[in-house]
Amino acid sequence: MRGTEITIPVQDVHLGGELSLSKEASGLVVFAHGSGSSRHSPRNQFVARMLRESGVGTLLFDLMTAEEEQAEASTRHLRFDIPFLARRLVAATQWVLDEGTIRDISVGYFGSSTGAAAALVAAAEMPENINVVVSRGGRPDLAGDALERVRASTLLIVGGKDTAVISLNEEAYGRLECQKALRIVPGATHLFEEPGTLETVARMASEWFADHFQPMGKAR
Length: 220
Fold this sequence. Notes:
The chain is α/β, with parallel strands linked by helices. The chain has a single domain (about 5-210), classed as Rossmann fold (3-Layer(aba) Sandwich), CATH 3.40.50.1820. Helix content is about 35%, strand content about 25%. It has an 8-stranded mixed sheet, sandwiched between helices. Helix 1 crosses helix 6 (about 195-210).
């Protein structure tokens, strides 16, 4: 289904987003990307499309405004500010639960790069709302002490050639106390640009969400 362009008010800014949620969707996956990416990223759009084909809804939105992204490209002052990114993600999640849906629905996160750390921190802050987290080439280690507080079922996906990030994911995996899995995609580098590797990520994510989304509540 075609997504609806939305504007999410968060604190003193407005963030652009694209919400695709059918009446039959078994859950809603909120994307959290790292700096330099956006809701228009071909990689994010590709994974979102495959997730929708598997029966879940998606919300792609930008954690920063265009002005913040432009400033951040020079200063790099926000990309590793995980508390800041997590606050934005929590606020956007609360907004979509209150304003963007007309029924109770299971919610999960799909995070990449530093966005994966923000997703884990946000999941730890919202254990009653966030059921599932999937990280693609993420930096879950940057979630810090929040790792032990995550209750959402968490899947960490890393490229087989992304050796530095593999070790960081292994470190974070050891600290997680929730239902969890760590999967390596052979031959893939950090951005999963090799033929077939992003399809593998999307398939793994689709299966993880399908297996771990909790049943929806009754319609409001």
